[in-house]
C-alpha cells in the first residue's frame, strides 16, 4: 500500500495502482486466501493515520489472519497497529537496525505475533539483505540475519527475493531453501509467483512453509481457489476446499 | 449475554468482532461480577502460559471456575483451552484449572515451532461444538505448546504427534485453534457455541 492505495511494482520499482486495500483484502479472503499481508511502503512515514485507518477498515471484515507491516519503528508503532486490528506485525528495516526490537515486541505480544520480513538479492554468490524498501544494501548475509532474528524471538520469516519480485518468473527456491533449512521457525516465500507450478516448486524444492503472492492476484491473473485446487491435486498440503 | 474475558494479555478485538458479526450480544470484561452475570463465557488466551498468573490476582480465576461449575457454556480459546488442563510445560509454576487431565507440552524438535498456519482436524461426530463441520476441515493454529489427546477430545490434528484441537465435556469447551481467524469454518463453530 502507498498513500492508502494498493500498488504493485516489479523488483520494487514502477508501481501501478491496484485498488482499495480493504476491498482487495476482502475479495482475496473470499476467494480463499489463507492470510492477508498489508505492507505500507509510503515513502513519507510521518502520517501513520492513513495506514491505521486502512488497517481498521481492512480488519473489519476479515476472519482470516491479517499481518501488517511497513514503517513500524518501535513498540509503540507496533501497539498502534495491533490496536487497529492486525493479528501480526511485520518489521524489516527497524529490526535490522535494532534486533532487540524483535524481542521487545515478542515479549509483550508473543512471538506468534511478530513476523520479520527480509528482502534479499543475490550479490557475488550469496544473498545480501537490503532495507529501506530495498534501497539500502546492508552488507549482511540473509541466512545469518534470519538466524539472528529467530534467536531474538521472531515467530515467522517473510522472505522476499528482490531479484524475482514482480517478475512472475518463479520464486527463488535456492534462497528460500537456504533460509528455511537454517531456521526453526516457519518461512514464507515471497517474490516471483507467476503460476501454480511456481507455488508447487517453492514448497517442494524451496522447503517453504507458506508462499505469498501479490501481482498475480491483484491483476486478476490467477484465481486463488483454482490455484489451491491445483496445489491440492499436486499433493501439496493446503487448505482445500477453501 | 456472552462475557469475553479480558485478562490483559492480548488483543480481544478479533474475538469480539467475530461474535459481533454473528449478531451475539457480547461484553468484554475483567470483572468477576460481570462474568457471574453472563449466560456464557468465552476465555481467549494468547501469549505465554505464565500470563495466566494474573487471573489469581483479581478474582477472575474463581469467577471462571464458578461459571464452569454452574453449568454455563464456557469456551476456552488457544491458551484459554490449555488453561482447562492441569498446566503447561511452558510455565510449570502456573496451575491450570485441572478440568481436563494432562499437561500441555512443547512440540518436538522434528517440527517447526511455533505451529503457525492452517491444519486439518479429525472430528468426533458426536461433538456439539463441531456440529455440521465437515471432516478434515482446516482451522488456523498459532501455538508452541499442545494439549494431549484425551477421552474428551472432539477434534485432533497431526503435527509431529496427534494433539487435541478441541475438547468438550458437558458445558465446557476448549479449542486450541483460533475460530475467529479460521474463516467460515471458525465462524460456524462460534455460531454453534452461540446456539447452545
Defining key terms:
heterodimer; A: alpha/beta; TIM Barrel; two-stranded antiparallel ribbon; 38% helix; 24% strand; globular; B: alpha/beta; 8-stranded mixed β-sheet; 3-stranded mixed β-sheet; 6 helices; 23% helix; 30% strand
Rg of chain A: 16 Å
How many individual helices of chain B? Answer: 6
Please provide the ordered H/E string of secondary-structure elements of chain B.
Answer: EHEHEHHEHEEEEEEEEEH
Q: Which class of secondary structure composition applies to the elements of chain A? A: alpha/beta
Shape of chain A: globular
- Amino-to-carboxy terminus distance of chain B: 13 Å
Whole-number tally of structural domains of chain B: 1
Query: What is the count of β-strands of chain B?
Result: 13
The percentage helix of chain A is 25-40%
Please tell me the overall pLDDT of chain B: 94
Largest interface: A-B, 25 and 30 residues
Q: Which H/E pattern describes the elements of chain A? A: EEHEHEHEHHEEEHEHEHEHH
Give the termini separation of chain A: 26 Å
CATH architecture of chain B: 3-Layer(aba) Sandwich
Helix percentage of chain B: 10-25%
Model regions low in confidence, pLDDT < 50 over at least 5 residues of chain B:
none
Provide structural commentary.
- The complex is a heterodimer of chains A (242) and B (196).
- Helix content of chain A is 38%, strand content 24%.
- With 242 residues, chain A is an alpha/beta fold.
- Chain A has one domain (6-233): Aldolase class I (TIM Barrel, Alpha-Beta Barrel).
- In chain A, α8 (196-204) packs across α10 (224-233).
- Chain B has a single domain (2-194), classed as Rossmann fold (3-Layer(aba) Sandwich).
- The model of chain B has no long low-confidence stretch (mean pLDDT 94).
- The chains are: A alpha/beta (242), B alpha/beta (196).
- Chain A binds chain B through residues 29, 34, 59-60, 63-65, 82-83, 85, 87, 109-112, 155-156, 184-186, 209-210, 239-240, 242, and chain B through 10-11, 13-14, 17-18, 21, 46-48, 109, 112-114, 116-118, 120, 138, 140, 142-144, 180-184, 186-187.
Amino acid at each position: 500500500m502507498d498513500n492508502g492505495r494498493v500498488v504493485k511494482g516489479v523488483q520494487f520499482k514502477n508501481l501501478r495502482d491496484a485498488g482499495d486495500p480493504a476491498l482487495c483484502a476482502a475479495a482475496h479472503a473470499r476467494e480463499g486466501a489463507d492470510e492477508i499481508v498489508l505492507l505500507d511502503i509510503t515513502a513519507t512515514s510521518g502520517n501513520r493515520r492513513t495506514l491505521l485507518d486502512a488497517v481498521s477498515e481492512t480488519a473489519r471484515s476479515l476472519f482470516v489472519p491479517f499481518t501488517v507491516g511497513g514503517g513500524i519503528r518501535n513498540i509503540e508503532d507496533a501497539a498502534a497497529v495491533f490496536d487497529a486490528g492486525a493479528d501480526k506485525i511485520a518489521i524489516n528495516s527497524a529490526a535490522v537496525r535494532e534486533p532487540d526490537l524483535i524481542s521487545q515486541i515478542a515479549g509483550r505480544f508473543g512471538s506468534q505475533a511478530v513476523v520479520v520480513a527480509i528482502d534479499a538479492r543475490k550479490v557475488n554468490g550469496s544473498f545480501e539483505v537490503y532495507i529501506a524498501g530495498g534501497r539500502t544494501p546492508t552488507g549482511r548475509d540473509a541466512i545469518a540475519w534470519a538466524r539472528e532474528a529467530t534467536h531474538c524471538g521472531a515467530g515467522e520469516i517473510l522472505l522476499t527475493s528482490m531479484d524475482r519480485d514482480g517478475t512472475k518468473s518463479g520464486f527463488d527456491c535456492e534462497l528460500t531453501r537456504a533460509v528455511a533449512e537454517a531456521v526453526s521457525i516457519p518461512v514464507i516465500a515471497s517474490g516471483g509467483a507467476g503460476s501454480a507450478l511456481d507455488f508447487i516448486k517453492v514448497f517442494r524444492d524451496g522447503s517453504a512453509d507458506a508462499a505469498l503472492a501479490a501481482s498475480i492476484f491483484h491483476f486478476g491473473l490467477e484465481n486463488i481457489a483454482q490455484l489451491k485446487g491445483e496445489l491440492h491435486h499436486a499433493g501439496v498440503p493446503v487448505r482445500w476446499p477453501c | 449475554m456472552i462475557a469475553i474475558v479480558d485478562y490483559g494479555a492480548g488483543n480481544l478485538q478479533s474475538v469480539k468482532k467475530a461474535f459481533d458479526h454473528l449478531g451475539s450480544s457480547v461484553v468484554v470484561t475483567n470483572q468477576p461480577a460481570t462474568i457471574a452475570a453472563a449466560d456464557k463465557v468465552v476465555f481467549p488466551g494468547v501469549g505465554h502460559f505464565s500470563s495466566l498468573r494474573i487471573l489469581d490476582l483479581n478474582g477472575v480465576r474463581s469467577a471462571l471456575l464458578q461459571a464452569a461449575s454452574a453449568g454455563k457454556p464456557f469456551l476456552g480459546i488457544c491458551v484459554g483451552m490449555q488453561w482447562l488442563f492441569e498446566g503447561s510445560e511452558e510455565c510449570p509454576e502456573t496451575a491450570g484449572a485441572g478440568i481436563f487431565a494432562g499437561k500441555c507440552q512443547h512440540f518436538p524438535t522434528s517440527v517447526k515451532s511455533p505451529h503457525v498456519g492452517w491444519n486439518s482436524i479429525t472430528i468426533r461426530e458426536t461433538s456439539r461444538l463441531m456440529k455440521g463441520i465437515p471432516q478434515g476441515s482446516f482451522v488456523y493454529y498459532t501455538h508452541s505448546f499442545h494439549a494431549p489427546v484425551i477421552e474428551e477430545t472432539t477434534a485432533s490434528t497431526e503435527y509431529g504427534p496427534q494433539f487435541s484441537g478441541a475438547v468438550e465435556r458437558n458445558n465446557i469447551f476448549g479449542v486450541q485453534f483460533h475460530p475467529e481467524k479460521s474463516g467460515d469454518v471458525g465462524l460456524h463453530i462460534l455460531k454453534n457455541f452461540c446456539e447452545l
